[in-house]
Design the sequence.
């Protein structure tokens, strides 16, 4: 039985998901990102095995055929996937693994790993979401409207997630996310696997009770 | 749909359950104890409706016949019960309710209210449990052995509880318990009922997106 948990975090763009997930990995012990496989070429400074596992299309297709991915997708002509074996290995080591993926990827993961814990990050209101995306200033109106169009569809999926964190104030949202991760560590399965041995909770040969 | 959650907390005697539950109610907002009904006469200083609802045996039996209790039991000739309607009323107000009850009572509650969240408090080891009970000094050896006998049976039930808190160091155990209660408040059902309205997460008539 796995000793860690897989956390799947989704959100519409502009909700602050990536920032929140990074805070979680930086500020809590024993939780790590999953390193994705991709066919996209490395950008300057990116390290193979740390930022991504950079693989050829042929290799990626082989892994898809082997059902090696918990989820995969094609984005702008490149493939991205989450390798099941690598996630399972970390869980078995007692690490929590965090997957920062969209609602489609989350659906694939839930099918293959029903024990995954799903968290949705919501903006506090539609108005705030619009403002955040427009203030980024790096995209034209059409592209922002496309993101908002997607956001509208994605937000409808919130009811399929176990937990929901409203990111109004960043630090507050981070504390909620942290609370969710830490509470899962108190689930009975995890406590009995990691923290206390039921055999230590029976009278031993030298106990007063049996004297 | 209820806006609060019912937390059922069980433990063998000596695990520190009552202390931990009191800390929770004193230090967290919006969580209250359920006030039990009992046929036991009030002790000096006990207030009807605050410490217990003091009722006659006839009244208690009427309530049992009406299926008004989430759980009830007879202890040392007196009846004790948890009134379902009173618990539901508090949950509907958005309050969390905490029930400090034994494993038998917890089983009854889970049957009637499957959404209840169950937490087991464990001592760190059998040896510590023995020491704690013996150091109390208020009971003779036979009575302590009877408690330990019960503890052994109760501890076997831990695997039926959602969460487990090991009470080694009291403050640490309290923080874990608090984390569990707060994380449940981030469950999607609760966030959508109490914190954010999905209709506020769609573009309104004045939104830029629709312009």
Sequence:
């Amino acid at each position: 039985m796995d000793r860690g948990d897989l956390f799947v975090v989704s959100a519409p763009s502009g909700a602050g998901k990536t920032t929140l997930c990074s805070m979680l990995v930086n500020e809590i012990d024993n939780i790590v990102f999953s390193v994705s496989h991709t066919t996209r070429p490395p950008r300057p400074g990116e390290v193979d095995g740390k930022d991504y596992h950079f693989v050829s299309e042929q290799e990626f297709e082989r892994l898809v055929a082997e059902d090696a991915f918990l989820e995969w997708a094609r984005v702008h002509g490149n493939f991205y996937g989450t390798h099941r074996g690598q996630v399972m290995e970390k869980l078995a080591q007692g690490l929590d693994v965090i997957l920062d993926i969209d609602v489609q990827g989350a659906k694939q993961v839930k099918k293959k790993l029903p024990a995954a814990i799903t968290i949705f990050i919501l903006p506090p209101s539609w108005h705030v979401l619009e403002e955040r995306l427009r203030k980024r200033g790096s995209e034209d109106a059409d592209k922002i409207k496309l993101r908002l169009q997607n956001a509208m569809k994605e937000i409808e999926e919130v009811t399929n997630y176990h937990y929901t964190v409203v990111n109004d104030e960043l630090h507050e949202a981070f504390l909620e996310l942290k609370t969710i991760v830490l509470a899962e560590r108190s689930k009975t399965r995890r406590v009995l696997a990691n923290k206390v041995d039921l055999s230590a909770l029976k009278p031993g040969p030298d106990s007063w009770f049996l004297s």
